[in-house]
Amino acid sequence: MSLPPDDASATPSASPAVLRERIGARALATLGATSPQVELLLEDPGLRERIARVALASDFAIETLRRQPALLAHLAAADPGPWPEPELDPAQPLAWPTLLRLYRTAESTRLVWRDVLGLDDVDATLAGSTRLAESCLRLALAAVEGEFEERHGVVRDADGRAQRLVVFGLGKLGGGELNFSSDVDLVYAYPHDGESDGRRALAAEDYFARLGQRLAKLLDEATADGFCHRVDLRLRPFGNAGRVAWSFAAMDQYFQREGRDWERYAWLKARAVAGDTAAGEAWLETLRPFVYRRYLDYTALDGLRTMKAAIVAEVQRRDMADDLKRGPGGIREIEFLVQSLQLIRGGREPELRGRRLLPALRALVAAGQIAPDHGRDLEDAYRYLRRLENRVQMLRDAQTHALPADAEDRSRVALALGYDDWDALARALARCRAQVSAEFDALLVPRRGEAAPDALESYWRGLPEAGQAQVLADAGFGDAEGADASLRDFARGNGVRALSDAARKRLDRVVPALLAAAARSAQPEAALRRLLGLLQAILRRASYLALLDEQPSALARLVDVLARSALLAERIASYPLLLDELLDARVAGTMPDEAAMRAACVAAVKAQDEGDPEAALRALNEVRQALSFRIALAALDRRQPAEDSARQLAALADAVVDEVLRMAEAEVLAAHGALPGGRFAVIGYGSLGGRELGFGSDLDLVFLYDADPAAVSEGRRPLEASRWYARLAQKVVALLGAVTSAGRLYETDMRLRPDGGKSLLVSTLSSYEDYQRQRAWTWEHQALVRARPVAGDASLREAFERVRAQTLGRHRDVPALAGDVMHMRRRMRAELDRSDAARFDLKQGAGGLVDLEFLVQFGVLAQASAHAGLLQPRDTPALLDALAACGWLAPDIARSLHAAHAVLLDVGLACTLDRRPRLAAPTEAIAQARAAVDEALRACGLDFEPAAGSDA
Questions:
Q1: Strands 184-190 and 245-247: what pairing?
Q2: Where is this region: Adenylyl transferase (predicted)?
């Protein structure tokens, strides 16, 4: 840090003791001469000592006490509260400026007093400065509104509703962190166009513009009493060239068409601070998509670089290196760092959207975007710099951010802050600013990471006309000619040719780095093929090119994932929003549990406008995509067993179905009214019920309801119970399968309902119970082993469990049961087993997953009448444990089946992740798994092998 040079013309500073004594004595003499009452107060030694401390820090405070002697008695209290607000008499407008200015200086002096004497920390001082500005705005606006109402009436919209001005505070006022002598950044707006209803009517735009100008003048104009608050209106649309007050509709159009990057930073902190604050806050919610993008938005760094470059140029031009706000390592760098990360991630993570800097910084630390120790350093630095800035301004109530040049002023600031001298303060400040600069530079510097090899860069820049395929061969591509042809086709495509200059520059940096990473991957050709598909999908999405450009870790991670998983490559290309997950710090951490996934689904739907079910469905799908992607990455990286991934996917599906049912019920209720006494439940069968869902699996669902057959809904379009619940079930299926911009939630399969595809979509509980008791086939009871309720009315879910337990727990003829189970499995093997000499069908092959499922289901049906513990589990591992616990399976066989299930599920999941059929080349692990299943089948007297020449 470059410290302020010693000014040769400055008065040499006296020793600290002499300086304190001189300034304190002068202040006490000045105040003692104001009135006998003050002279009496000054007989208190403790008060004299406090005044001397305040005098060392602030000439402004002493001058205010001289001009307002009554204030000293107020401050003499142990914990002086706020100074009373003035009353602005409508009949005496000429007195308003004086009253406001005296109030501002009195309350500001109280803030100095509390800060210097240690009654407030810097956070409290900033909050106090903010409250003071808000109070003055509120008082002044109320006064001028009365004045305008008397002269012009009130503005009314087309429906005759009265309107008020909305005053938005931006910058530190909006963030609630106003420094001591700051100006206030204001933007004026109003809800709707219209006209005032007074004798001298004005259009809304003129009315509110004049009102705003009158407000600014009342606060800002310098009088004999100084000013109240400096008002800066330059942050409004089009700056000084723009109109003074804007309707919300005009503001909407401006931000849609003209909004610039720096305005996103400015409006991030915006807050309605006076006038119709409720309308202002509601409008700010509609501005959120302009400020925060729905994706990780690394284009925000472009705006930051532009702003930072402009500030650096100004600092250099005006020799402002020691400016506490704009200089290197200053307050602005901390603000920019935090706001940039907020803009990058805030669209995806609502907890990062705060207006106040320190809470936002803590949220970034909690989200893993800033290391905890760095976060603490930045928080300490921010408080240090803001306190020093305040003290420099408190000295004479000057709007300055520069360190004092005068030697005595330097000494006063240092001594009042507890330093021995200026040099000690300067050393501490230098360390603080160096820390800030290092953190800020780290945000801007990491783009592009390791440079791409020159050969690949030159090759790419030469396409499509020049470039040699040999460069690709040298880099590590086996089929260099094929890769070269694909890259040339991509380079000459319309998507690349239509790019803007800025986007093309990004692409030219990204592609060589991607090529280098692909060449180093396990499958270079596959990685390249998938990369080109992805690039084609995101060429027009500048934010995603920016992400890859700015974050080398994301680029490397992307190539690694694409090389190893065709499924994830396909999903990322279809839904580039998933690129954000590659940078999510939580991806490599603990996987979310069922409660966390359910909370995420609920929050996604709640965050949308209730009148926009399409947006709610899209948001729910985005959450599902992101969470399933995270589960897939954990599986791909082998950070968890396949069984855990399958359970997590099932838990996610449960949460989604539950939320979709809520949405469907809301739509049916709105259309047809409530059905008194009715109950509805969704039952999950198959892999959903057994908590062994795969990536891309459909959901086997059965719908049940219970209601009085004669009941009719209470809406304007009433329906009887059967039709009401049929409509609800149809709506659930439609919502689950609806195509949104984030894809569809799930494919559904209803064929496991009673009587299959030829029956009604939804069954009454009584008819379902009767079907299971009277007409269900053995294979349907096998399917019931894995069935469980996943959503709906709790009491109906319990009733289903009772029916299931009664059905599975009935006494059975075990030989006949074995015959039914073997007949069905032999038939399935004959029709569905795709195994051949080179590959094994993991699901339908001999000794595969379905053989294991049939074995377990046979055991449950055969033993549940005697062992109630078999009725609770649904997933295969838990069922194996239960069968071993009741003695039906030998412990060693149960252990080997556990291992077999884990192997078969793991290999099958790997096939799914790479978009391959679940057919695997024989391995020792698979052979052992099949042998374990075969041994268990023999031990239980089951033979699933189709007879030679039979059709099973």
A1: parallel
A2: 457-952
